[in-house]
Design a protein that fits this description.
about 650 residues, mainly alpha
Length: about 650
């Protein structure tokens, strides 16, 4: 567990200079919180046990930020020698003696720094009882010290002494100025996050925050904090109720919306609160971006794109959002819009500033040694990776538009020192489209790449090239050889099964997928692929239903599995369920094959204008050559 240092208490100036002698000891308390994990692991060890290694001394800036001593009298000779003896005892490993000496000095001087030092000695000696004695003495000596109460709460959490926590936690909130209470309450879930008994933490927090739950200035923060603690305690329904009340208290407050975003996975109704907030004209772009992330986690890429565009309309300077939008649009097969978004990213102020910094650092490196620090190098590396990723996406978007020279031009911009298999595969794919399949295969087999690759990685890349070149039998033969060499590799077996399906070798496909399920019983894609294949061929529909239901239980947010559920429902004659499921899948992931299925169900339901619209949308997303859409239109004798 990691706890933050206690925040210094603001005190009025007395006009008397602080004692330089006592201030010189401020560094001694710096290791207190760093040592708390050891205390939590072993709460009481004999006093004279050798202490663990001390934490490094704080910097002069950190030492200067330590709280002012309450007693500003000069450090006299007896006090100096007492502190010296205490430190000598600590250095000698006699923690019990050191603790008593320093605690006595803290009581006599009424100095917060010395109380902190006494607690640190107890913590380093892994004596929780002594640490609590010191913090109780601190509170008794300085009753108004918020630092003392904050430290007591931290210690009690580290020691799992939760039954004693409600009183100091309540007092901690009461002692801060009224205008700061909401911020302190909002931080309670993080403050108590290290405790293992989440249900007990929730109960004691309800007691501690009871005076603030209905108070006008703190009720929103209190209900949100309790909601977070309830969610941590696996009481999501209770968390949902608290979140809703907090949102009703203040519909513009961001705290309840962030809680609602975290509740979406376990309590889907929480999303309605999020969407209602985002409909407000004063909705924060940062919360919209957080919603985009939540949608991404649920594979609802189509909806994420819509929200991301709205966020960028509010904050067009957010460079990372442009990169994310470009990646989504490439995935959705909207290359023209993707190129616009990616160019906006590359033209953004952030990217240009990073480029200028890299150029400056490169010049500095040429002139002096060393050039930049590790943090600067890490930042530069991350920035360059983002730019290289944009180049790869631009190449892919141009490839979707069949603009192969332009695609190659973007690939040439990628830093050659960063060459990985993704870059090599992209180049190879362009070569296939230009009739150079054999050369492309040789490239992915032999090109040196950065990092260590699993043996199957190059095989899968070469297989993909063969499929792009319409050499499906060759792809099957390549994968079959790889499976024989690695008969337990479920990834290779799955890819071989999908290739067998394309070749209409359905018995082989089914045997291979059942082999995947045996090796990896939680592989949702294997269940889904087998169930969908049965439904597509309109055979053994009960078994197909069982298989796709199993897939959905393993991956409930996967839009392609939702598509399979809808397709099975349609094959079984349940048009209403099919439409509901296929609309859900299409909104989440408007893929051309999902469009083909949704359009067919709409066509069968007599909604032919909407079916035509959906098919046109699907075809516009790089779907003009899609086999499923083409076969659907031919079978239904529908024209676009």
């Amino acid at each position: 567990m990691k706890l933050r240092p206690a925040r210094p208490v603001s005190r009025p100036s007395t006009g008397v200079p602080a004692s330089p002698g006592l201030r010189a000891w401020a560094w001694l308390g710096a290791g207190l919180l760093a040592a708390l994990p050891a205390l939590a692991q072993n709460r009481n060890v004999p006093a004279d046990a050798p202490p663990p290694a001390s934490a490094p001394a704080s910097s002069p800036e950190e030492a200067a930020a330590q709280p002012e001593p309450v007693n500003n009298s000069l450090l006299d000779a007896p006090m100096f020698y007492q502190l010296l003896i205490g430190e000598m005892e600590a250095q000698a490993g006699r923690g019990g003696n050191a603790f008593e000496v320093i605690l006595d000095a803290a009581r006599r001087s009424k100095d917060s720094v010395l109380f902190q030092r006494a607690i640190e000695i107890a913590v380093q000696g892994r004596s929780g009882d002594r640490a609590l004695v010191a913090v109780e003495a601190w509170r008794a000596t300085l009753p108004g010290s918020t630092e003392a109460v904050r430290t007591q709460v931290q210690l009690l959490v580290a020691l799992e002494r939760l039954d004693e926590l409600a009183e100091p936690l309540k007092l901690l909130v009461e002692q801060v100025p009224p205008e700061e209470r909401s911020a302190v309450i909002a931080g309670v879930p993080r403050f108590l996050g290290g405790a293992h008994d989440k249900a007990a933490v929730l109960g004691l927090s309800e007691t501690a925050l009871a005076p603030f739950v209905n108070a006008e200035g703190t009720r929103t923060a209190s209900r949100t904090a309790l909601g977070r603690l309830a969610l941590a305690a696996d009481q999501s329904e209770k968390a949902l109720g608290l979140m809703r009340r907090a949102n009703e208290d203040d519909p513009s407050a961001p705290g309840p919306i962030l809680l609602a975003l975290d509740l979406m996975a376990s309590q889907p109704p929480a999303e309605a609160v999020v969407r209602a907030y985002l409909a407000r004209p004063d909705a924060l772009a940062a919360l919209r971006l957080a919603y985009v992330q939540a949608l991404d986690q649920r594979q609802r890429i189509g909806e994420a794109v819509d929200q991301l565009k709205l966020a960028l309309a509010q904050q067009p300077e957010t460079s990372q959002a442009w990169l994310t939008l470009g990646a989504y649009l490439v995935e959705l097969g909207e290359p023209k819009e993707a190129i616009k978004a990616l160019i906006r990213f590359l033209d953004s102020a952030d990217v240009k500033r990073d480029a200028a910094e890299r150029a400056a650092n490169a010049g500095q490196q040429a002139a002096t040694t060393p050039a930049v620090g590790d943090d600067d190098e890490d930042h530069e590396d991350r920035a360059q990776r983002r730019i290289d990723y944009a180049y790869l996406l631009l190449a892919q978007a141009n490839e979707q538009l069949r603009q192969y020279p332009e695609a190659l031009g973007w690939l040439d911009k990628v830093d050659p020192d960063r060459s990985d298999l993704a870059l090599v595969s992209r180049r190879a794919s362009l070569m296939v489209h230009q009739g150079q399949l054999d050369a492309a295969r040789k490239l992915v087999r032999e090109a040196p790449v950065r990092g260590t690759l699993e043996p199957r990685t190059r095989v899968l890349a070469e297989s993909q090239l063969l499929q792009e070149g319409n050499r499906w039998q060759a792809s099957y033969d390549l994968l079959l050889g790889a499976v024989r060499a690695a008969p337990e590799d479920s990834v290779l077996i799955y890819e071989l099964a999908m290739t067998a399906e394309h070749l209409k070798r359905y018995d082989d496909m089914e045997a291979l997928l059942r082999r995947v399920i045996t090796i990896k019983p939680d592989d949702a894609h294997a269940y889904n692929a087998l169930g969908y294949s049965l439904a597509e061929r309109n055979v053994r529909l009960d078994e197909a239903q069982t298989l796709v239901d199993k897939a959905a239980s393993l991956a409930p947010d996967d839009p392609f599995i939702t598509d399979s559920l809808g397709w099975v429902a349609f094959r079984r004659g349940d048009t209403a369920s099919a439409l509901r499921l296929l609309r859900q899948a299409y909104n989440a992931r408007p893929h051309v094959e999902v469009a083909a299925h949704l359009g067919e169900v709409l066509w069968a339901a007599g909604q032919r204008d909407e079916a035509t619209r959906v098919w046109r949308e699907g075809r516009s997303r790089n779907g003009s050559d899609n086999e499923v859409l083409r076969d659907t239109l031919q079978r239904l004798k529908a024209s676009l």
